[in-house]
Predict the structure.
Amino acid sequence: MPMRMYREIETKERKLKEVICNQCGKRLKVEDGILKEGCFHSEYPFDYFSKKDGFIYTFDLCEACFDGWIDGFSHPAEITETREYL
Ligand SMILES: [Zn+2]
């Protein structure tokens, strides 16, 4: 008789299936659950001092749409280099 016994459990694993740019509708490259191109992901919860308090804005932008967005800023975004590459 085995000294260890296991019971089978069901897991609800989530795997990324597809990412679509909210701006242009481009389908981004996803392979085996991994997003393989540049994407700006937002899941931003506005807070008390906003008219959008209590609402979370979730969207993705492809890199071209992200570039178009920040190019329209009257003051450029601050860009710093990450120290560690993952
Ligand atoms: Zn796009």
